[in-house]
Each structure stands twice: as C-alpha cells, then as structure tokens.
Design brief:
MetI-like fold; mainly alpha; 2 strands; two-stranded antiparallel sheet
C-alpha cells in the first residue's frame, strides 16, 4: 500500500513538473520570438512562413537607438526608474513602519486612502497632474515624471512593506529599546536588516512598475523626458511599422529587469516568502 502511495505521489509530481515546463515554454515563446525578430531583415519578419533559420543582422539596433535617438529614451527610463525607487523607498518604508507600530488617529482610514491612490486609474490623475506640472514648470522634465510615478508607487511600497513589518514580533522592538536604542535606532539597526529581502523584492517590483509605465511618460514626459515605453509608438507610422527596430527595442527594454532579477534573486525569493511560516 505504501509503495502504491509513493508511486502515485511520484507520478503526480512528474505530471506537475511537465505542466510547469510546458507553461514556461508557452510564456517564454512570445518573448523569444520578439527578441529573435530584432535580428531579422524586414523581409524575414513579414514572411508568410515563420523562419527560424535566417541570416542575422545587427542593423536594427543602431538604427533604433542611435539614428532614432532611443538611446536617450533608454537613459531617461533608467534615470526615472532609479530615482523613483529611491524616493518611494525613502518615503514609503518609514510610513509603513509607522502604520505597523504606532497608534495614529484615523490610521485605518488614512491607510485606506493610500490604497485608493494606488487603485485610482492613471488617466484620472493625468489631467490634474498636467495642470499642476504646467504651473510649476515640471512638464517634459524628469523630476516631474518621477513625482508622477511616486503617486502610485509610494502607496504600493507602504502597502507591501507594512505586511513585512507586521510579521516581525514587537518583542524585538522592546528588546532593542531595553538595550538602549531609541525608536529610530531600533528601526534602523534591528528591524531594517531583518526585512532586507522584503525591501529588495519591493524595490524590484517598484522599478518594474516605473519602467513599464507609459501613460504619464507619454502625457507628462514630453520629448525631453520621454521613456522607452512611450517612444515605441514612434515606430508605427502611416507608411508602415518598423518591426525590426520595434522588436530590437522591445528586447533591450527587458534586459535591465532580467539583470536586476538575477542579481536580486536570493533576496527576491526570501522576500516573497517572508512571513509565510512563523515560528
């Protein structure tokens, strides 16, 4: 009976592995085909018969990033994403700590207010931000775009980091206070090192949100602060779509996220599972 149970368990596990592999291949196929198309000639891309064997070319990359100026948009994306993440973490982490530990008047309502700013459609915020930024001279500038991204990313940081702080026993805070730390000292020297995986996963997700954001970049960024996602529409013209350049840019725009995910993989896995099991 035990052998039958073990055999059944192994069979179910094998089927599960096969299912995961197939699902990963299906999810990876569009990205692989897009990345591959960045090395194709226009005739190969528009061929009625999909081609896996072709003569690769690198001309799409200099054409899109140098001739069409996408290198500037790539720099804008990196600059906007990095500054947005830094500002959002500096503002959101202390706020999340305050929501988790301190008794604040109307805390539940205030926390719900932050969540509503995250749930609000971006198009509903675009017009008020456009009017405000036009008055303060922030239209078409990276600081303005960073502020626009912070309107929804700070709320995300507060929401996620509060759950990490809630999973830390308050006895650690009390022990740090007994050892002579102030509230801020306990937060900085004791609590933050514990939630480092959570900070890493939150920073990565926040960077992805900022990196992929298109609406604010298109409306508020203008030409000077335009990011890569907002510039893709320039490759779709009345005379046709530059598919090779579009695929080349789409392939490059994913590389920073992949590189960050690889470097932060250890912290990301620990952060996503943080608090799942309590001792």
């Amino acid at each position: 009976m035990l052998k039958q149970t073990n055999a059944k368990t192994r069979f179910i596990g094998f089927i599960g592995i096969i299912f995961i592999i197939v699902a990963c291949l299906i999810a990876f196929l569009p990205y692989f085909w897009t990345f591959l198309s960045g090395f194709k000639e226009r005739t190969d891309i528009l061929s009625t018969q999909p081609k896996l064997t072709f003569t690769p070319t690198l001309k799409n990359f200099p054409e899109v990033f140098i001739t069409n100026g996408f290198l500037v948009y790539l720099r804008n994306s990196v600059l906007t994403g990095v500054i947005t993440v830094v500002v959002s973490l500096l503002v959101g982490i202390p706020c999340a700590w305050a929501f988790s530990r301190f008794h604040i008047f109307g805390k539940k309502h205030l926390f719900f207010y932050f969540l509503t700013t995250r749930m609000c459609p971006g198009v509903a915020e675009a017009l008020p931000l456009y009017i405000l930024f036009s008055k303060f001279g922030l239209l078409g500038k990276t600081p303005g775009l960073v502020l626009a991204h912070c309107t929804f990313i700070v709320a995300f940081v507060i929401y996620v980091m509060r759950t990490f702080f809630d999973d830390i026993p308050e006895e650690l805070d009390n022990a740090a206070l007994v050892d002579g730390y102030t509230e801020w000292g306990a937060f900085w020297h004791v609590i933050l090192p514990i939630v480092k995986p959570g900070i890493a996963s939150t920073a990565l997700l926040s960077f992805i949100f900022s990196w992929n954001e298109m609406l604010f970049a298109l409306i508020l960024g203008g030409h000077a602060a335009k990011t890569l996602p907002a510039s893709f529409s320039g490759l779709i013209t009345p005379h046709g779509t530059f598919w090779g350049q579009l695929c080349a840019a789409a392939g490059v725009v994913t590389l920073p996220i992949i590189i960050l995910a690889i470097f932060l993989q250890k912290y990301l896995i620990r952060g996503l599972s943080f608090g799942a099991v309590k001792g």
